[in-house]
Amino acid sequence: ARLAWHRIPQEVRNVVIKKGGPEDGTTSPMRPLPGGARMYPETDIPSFSLTGEEWQEIVDNLPMSDDDRKTRMQQFDISQDQASQILARQLDDAYIDHISDLPHKGLATLILENDTANPQLLANVLRAKESGHLSRESMNEIVTALLGSNPTPEEIAAYAENNGYKPADVADLASIVESIIAERIDFVKERGMGAMGPLMGVVMQAAAGADGKQVSALLREAIQKAIE
Q1: Are residues 135 and 201 in the same domain?
Q2: What's the domain count of the chain?
Q3: Three-state secondary structure call for residue 102
Q4: 99 and 155: one domain?
Q5: Is residue 99 part of a domain?
Q6: pTM higher than 0.70 for the full model?
Q7: Cα-to-chain-centroid distance, residue 31
Q8: Domain residues for 131?
């Protein structure tokens, strides 16, 4: 009671419950609260001392903290949202191990869209795409088709060509765009640049495997010429 007058005792207390007695919240002391050290040291594990070198080795090999991983991702040219998603899904090690000479945003997008696939497969698919062997739009389909295997970029390029994923030649693609514009010239003159959206799908269907970005650029140029 004298101790409690000056400060709250640091102890564990037991609620007193007596049969037939009132439940008035009366408590009694049980044991002091444990301090910084354990109250009951482990008895079956012998203690041992570490040398300075051993301690330093442990410190040098500690896992990276979340802040360290976040800082590490800042060196790559990707959006903050991409970096946050890669960290949240614990894909940062796979991303960094395979980025090499690949486009930062391209690999980030591919990994996030196929987070259960082998990262090496994703890197090789992107490498084949960067070499012009397949279109951007076909990458996820090719990844799905090749899941469980680990083909080289050359083998992926061959697969793309054999299955219609190889991008159309620029000259052929330009010819397809011009042909479609000529067939729908009245629609183009009526809608102007508003014809871009509807015709984009038509061109992509006619030029299977074409790169969407390339189609968009050629189609925009062709429409501008037609309405001048």
Answers
A1: no
A2: 3
A3: coil
A4: yes
A5: yes
A6: no
A7: 51
A8: 66-162
